[in-house]
Fold:
Amino acid sequence: MRRLMSEDGALPVAGVFNPLSALIAEQVGFRALYFSGAAFSASLGIPDIGLFTLDELATAVRWVTKATTLPLIVDADTGFGEAINVHRTVNDLEAAGAAAIQIEDQVMPKRCGHLDGKQIVSAEEFAVKVRAASEARRSSLIIARTDSKAVYGMCEAVRRGKLYQEAGADIIFPEALESQEEFAEYSRLVDAPLLANMTEFGRTPYLTVEQFGELGYKLVIFPVTALRVSAKAMEGALSETLSLGTQRSLLSDMQTRAELYELIRYSDYERMDSAFRGEA
Structure:
């Protein structure tokens, strides 16, 4: 992750929620992944308000990092508690293979960063959590997300970004900025590696990775894109199958059996089994 961030421009980061989505992102050419709390929550059939546990998250992350060698940013929401809890969160997620761990300054229960009604903790309180995260990590990067712009305005978001960087954050994530001008202003005022959230149906305009790079951002995440598209595709496919009584018309839209087996390295397991048996 550090090497990728040293390159010029912004790095596009694919939002994933399970090993299969991670393998697809790697196959198409992404070089870094983002394990989205929103997408993971949705995949469990629950809202993104901090309902899954640290153990559930760490287990899911472990499955993803086993499937791919790409660096994985993990969304840890508010860190699963206070400073001492954040310390454990970082330990557990780093042990699961996280290359970077993101925590945010909302109160629990948290809300999607692009919804109204968010509440945030004091800047000084969250700085303590950032400090705990920084001291806990051995090699992972710490990302501090601030939701303060929507609550208190740009000046407070800038103040918090600087404070969190001083507390040990490697990357600052200003959530829910609302214009290209705001992204430019934040980059000008906060001298730190910055992450931009290019989510859909939110407050942020649809800027390209190249545009974010020109504005001074190093990482651009697409946290729920893959889940939203796949969920819509599943809805359409199952609806048509139920209506027609057959899936035949959908075959051209499907990943073939051969393509799926290639993606999950089916033949590698067959060769391994043959080698164990002493077969040629």
In short: The mean pLDDT is 96. The longest strand covers residues 11-16. The chain is about 50% helix and 10% strand.
